[in-house]
Write a structure and sequence with these properties.
Layout lengths: L1 H8 L1 H13 L2 H22 L3 H27 L5 H29 L2 H22 L5
Helix pairs in contact: 2-4, 3-4, 3-6, 5-6
Protein name: Putative MFS transporter
Keywords: Membrane, Transmembrane, Transmembrane helix
């Protein structure tokens, strides 16, 4: 039931993504969402109480915004003949990143506790945020 609630928490993000893109530039939006993800996971790692669930739902809403933005970004910049290949490559890259992050989460969650695993994910988001800040001008 909790997993279904997290899934449904992503729906509002999916639905408002196109409106947010009209209001902000894509690079700014990606930086903002990544900051929300990093802050949410960091709070979840540090809070250790029921308010962490609110942060987890905020992370899910923010993650819901990323999916249509990433798919739209690729689909508008790739020739239609290459779209299936690029979608497959994106899926491969996403799954590789999930495996690497999952291994790190498992390592820190087993070595410390569950909150240590969330702290690791917060660290990964913060590192990616620094990368986005460096390349934000090139994202259009």
């Amino acid at each position: 039931m909790f997993s279904a609630a997290l899934f449904f928490a992503r729906l509002p993000g999916n639905l408002i993504a196109y409106k947010l893109k009209e209001v902000m530039k894509l690079g700014t939006l990606l930086i903002l969402i990544t900051a929300v993800l990093g802050a949410g996971f960091a709070y979840l790692a540090l809070a250790r109480d029921w308010t962490g669930l609110i942060a987890l739902f905020a992370v899910c809403v923010a993650a819901g915004v990323i999916e249509p933005l990433a798919a739209g970004y690729l689909h508008h910049r790739i020739d239609s003949g290459m779209r299936a290949t690029i979608d497959s490559f994106q899926s491969l890259g996403l799954n590789a990143a999930l495996v690497a992050t999952g291994i790190g989460f498992g390592y820190f969650a087993s070595g410390m506790d569950l909150f240590g695993g969330f702290g690791f994910i917060g660290f990964v988001c913060a590192a990616f945020l620094l990368y986005l800040l460096a390349i934000a001008r090139r994202i259009r």
